[in-house]
Amino acid sequence: IHEAIAAASPNDVIQVHAGTYEAFTLDKPLVITALPSPPGQIVQVINPSMFTADVTVFRPPVGTCAYVTNLHFRNMWFHYWSMDTSVELGTVCFEECTFEGNPGSRQAALRVQDAEVQMRHCLVKAQPGPDCVNTGLTVTNGAAFLVDCVVLGASLTHKASFSGGAAITCTDSV
Fold first, then answer.
1. Distance, CA of 119 to CA of 94 (rounded, Å)
2. What is d(CA 70, CA 90) in angstroms, rounded to the nearest whole number?
3. How far lies 27's CA from each of 3, 23, 58, 88, 94, in Å?
4. What value does the mean pLDDT take over residues 13-30?
5. Which of 67, 131, 141 is CA-nearest to residue 111?
6. CA 170/CA 125 separation, integer angstroms
7. Distances (CA, A) of 14 to 1, 37, 45, 54
8. Which of 23, 85, 94, 135 pairs with 69 at a CA distance of 20 to 30 A?
9. Which of 127, 78, 77 is nearest to 98 (CA)?
10. What is the Cα–Cα distance from 68 to 99, expressed in whole angstroms?
């Protein structure tokens, strides 16, 4: 995905085959969409190593919009470096996407700061972890508009020693 973004011009469409991809930065107004695939096969964005901190960052220029459809952002590593997914500039529209938090990261499954997200039919879920308050969606100085989405904080009932977290936290946001 990273190479396709580098080669793309604004407003291009990047179609992604089912498979596993590394974290990337999107700093252009592009469309990234998963191609149709057989049941059970998805486009998954992960951190492939437990020893590096990879971040998927969305930063389309202010006044533009990036569109992302049918991608699964998964934080895999428990108590090691994790992959973080954040929107830090501009507007990003997500449809049919999943954001899965890391149980040991103390970070939200999706962070929005100084930006706007529009989400439709998405799943955002924190994972419970020991001594971690994991939030599903965190919005700071931004805006989040959700339609037919499910946002889950970490469960208090997973294990007695695991902490819970809010589904959504907002600071100076709408």
1. 5
2. 20
3. 13, 13, 6, 10, 15
4. 94
5. 141
6. 16
7. 8, 15, 15, 21
8. 135
9. 127
10. 12
